[in-house]
């Protein structure tokens, strides 16, 4: 990378100056300390991370940042400092100032709104506020996928458990940050979304998923954000233990940083290590060795959060590593160039020394407050309300008492209610290693927030409120007395899946309410999760369940207004929980237009490439050779046998395609060949709109007898891919809800021999074929083809018949092998043989993608009979010989039916792809389309 950049300033030839730019450090204090001054002046430190320990007010922060930049300027730094902080919103904000800095929902809370536009606006507003005080980098977005959502400490800091949804909201936030002028840092690569915690503070949390599992899930948001222009990446401090990788510390491993992140995912930005002061990491490796290992692994910035002595040790360690020849000067220059390039995009001395400050924050504040209210109101989610208890203003009489039960919770960032409390005001709470990973900046007790929640509820109830807390001691006599008095009870939980006493307490109270209600006493129970929505998401015994996604004062204010009917909550639970809800918000309907080659061809190519980049490795072959022309059978000349109609959802302003669907009509069968949706636009009903339009169009064909999903020509997808079982199951459920028969699919396979030069027929195969005495010959062109077409027409689907016609017309690159009965000479089987350069490759991408020199054996058609297996073996054997004669290195056998697969596996073929072809009767499809268009 360094070679492609402009030459470095001569100052950077000084090794001490260059090394200083490779460190990212923090310090304790709300003013410039002698330690941070020394790091900037004497060690030429180039990047600083600010935390809650540095930030008290917006005014103080702006002054501190300006002081730091002035010190760097006066010390001769050629470029300003990179000043970064965590400002994730929800429960994780480094900077709080109720007069100037607005509170917004957590990442999961924003996702609960269901609005990518709102996600962008919140991120943009957040970035504008921190940029106003001089910050030029934000440590976000969080791109972790909660693979094991219920038990991970990240909780609401990330969008949820669906990789595509995490991608969409992460990219929306990233763009919001970037458009406000900040550089972005994705975290925590390769994922903190499914960590195993072993208990000791000296044990690293471990990722046990395989690389293939990570690629299909956790890595998807990182891959997509990189493609969209992510500036920097924080590499985590976790361990990785699976069959293909054994890594003690991800940020110290070249397998993770250089191989996985840079080579496999193509990331060329700045990589940042996790803090090397982490107890497990520093105890295991030592800071000196860890610093050298981090740079060797490929990290460009080494993070050390606060301890001056440790920071000095890290600097000396890196110098020692260079002296020992472990790290070259070229390696230092590569990271230096990356860091300087990053700084050039977000700062200059004019910007650094003249931040907009309080004046700009004052200008922004009112509009940002309105945005905050909108975001929180839209995020409040009522997952269940079986007994219609909400709003309370309609179900609770004025003289009835309301009981609020709140837990003694672990840390919460400062807020208006809590920042005046002393550090020892609350009861001490033991913190496990698991909880230390939630966030280093969360320092204040949450009791004050719940007290303010109680006051707000009391104002709504004109004093008719009872409020007490609960602990791991369970239901005490005081709780029983209050429950007996109250007509309605609100229990607040915060991460009850990890704080199990909350789960037990809530279930106990629910049982009491049920028993008391059965005895004639009114006991309405409302459970409110104020952190992870997974507390009681799947527990339907909790009849009324509300989620707020954080317990800041702003969130609690929105909760009170929702409980008492000031607005109707519209939030939905993110990820798989959102998809699994029976009652969903009405689908958005997209304008579907007919395909226009001249207008849409380039957009389709871009769409195919975008989908290919996000496809799991074992699905790439279906698309890697596809082009826009792969779907246009009649682009060059009309076909009497085929009618085709394709549809698009597009942005008419940018001409980008958001979705594409191809349809064909062959001899009474309507077929859908592909439905593509831009990965960044999934879960927005684009695919649903395309599907409905496609089915309506196919049903208009006279004489239609059935619908088919997947086809052999074009052979991009023979059906629903089976390579990812969970995704295939999800797709089949979706198609089942739209009228398709998923209980009796036709299984189809693409098979391959990757190295036919070294292939040899299994023992006895030749003798077996010869013993039956079938006759085999090879024909080219239309001469003598009538019997071939008659056989195919009688025993294969209509698109396979069209495939044979195209092969017969391409006589230079294609031929048909015929198998004849030794009794009467009638045809008992056929198969297409093709070489490189065949016109069929346009419509069969696998002939491009399976290898460098691919020969095809396509669509064997064999009537049922006692010798069908032998006929198949003979056709395949002759096909392999023809491929060898054409100097092919790889052989692909396409459109293999389920009953033939095992026979071919026995011959040495491997399964390349597997598909399930689905069907649907027109009447059922018509009913499904009508139901979708006219829901009850």
Pick out its properties.
eight-stranded parallel β-sheet, 39% helix, glycoprotein, 33 helices, 13-stranded mixed β-sheet, alpha/beta, NagZ_Beta-hexosaminidase, glycosidase, Rossmann fold, 19% strand, Acyl_CoA_acyltransferase, Aminopeptidase, TIM Barrel, 936 residues
What do these coordinates show?
Belongs to the glycosyl hydrolase 3 family. The chain is α/β, with parallel strands linked by helices. It folds into 4 domains: 312 residues, TIM Barrel (Alpha-Beta Barrel), CATH 3.20.20.300; 172 residues, Rossmann fold (3-Layer(aba) Sandwich), CATH 3.40.50.1700; 166 residues, 3-Layer(aba) Sandwich (Aminopeptidase); 168 residues, 3-Layer(aba) Sandwich (Aminopeptidase), CATH 3.40.630.30. Helix content is 39%, strand content 19%. The protein contains 33 helices and 33 strands. The strands form 5 sheets. Strands 21, 22, 23, 24, 25, 26, 27, 28, 29, 30, 31, 32 and 33 form a 13-stranded mixed sheet that branches.
Quick summary:
This protein is an alpha/beta fold and 936 residues long. Helices cover 39% and strands 19% of the residues. It folds into 4 domains: 18-191 and 211-234 and 250-363, TIM Barrel (Alpha-Beta Barrel); 381-418 and 435-568, Glycoside hydrolase family 3 C-terminal domain (Rossmann fold); 593-746 and 922-933, Aminopeptidase (3-Layer(aba) Sandwich), CATH 3.40.630; 748-915, Gcn5-related N-acetyltransferase (GNAT) (Aminopeptidase, 3-Layer(aba) Sandwich).
